[in-house]
Design goal:
By secondary structure, this protein is of the alpha+beta class. It has a single domain, classed as 2-Layer Sandwich (Enolase-like, domain 1), CATH 3.30.390. Helix content is about 20%, strand content about 25%. A hairpin with a 2-residue loop joins strand 7 and strand 8. The relative contact order is 0.20. It holds the Pfam family DTC. InterPro entries: Deltex_C (IPR039396), Deltex_C_sf (IPR039399), Deltex_fam (IPR039398). It is an enzyme of class 2 (transferase). One of its GO terms (cellular component) is cytoplasm.
């Protein structure tokens, strides 16, 4: 059985930059976890996700009730190890192919 790789992203408070909804305004961060299977395809996906993170593609800043917050961007992440596709978890036989196409 596969074990889970768990990339952890931690975003703290900061100021947004040009291109964000309200440049120069502070935003609220958070902790974000994503799960990948610990196999060859999962490790390849982890490397691609790392590159996407380094290029600023993993998260976006959105305004909620007048407060700027960090949220997941357009790249799909599995935020639960179980619960199936409906709960952003596994099993999901197509996830690695789908996220690979996005990346």
């Amino acid at each position: 059985t596969d074990t889970a790789l768990q990339p952890l992203f931690k975003m703290s408070y900061s100021c947004s930059k040009v291109g964000d909804p309200r440049p120069g305004q502070p935003y609220k961060g958070g902790k974000f976890c994503a799960f990948l299977p610990d196999n060859r395809e999962g490790q390849k996906t982890a490397m691609l996700l790392k590159k996407a993170f380094e290029r600023g593609l993993t998260f976006q800043i959105k305004s909620y009730n007048g407060e700027e917050r960090v949220t997941w961007g357009l790249i799909p992440h599995k935020t639960s190890w179980d619960g199936g596709k409906a709960r952003n978890g596994y099993p999901d036989a197509h996830y690695l192919r789908e996220v690979g196409a996005v990346l």
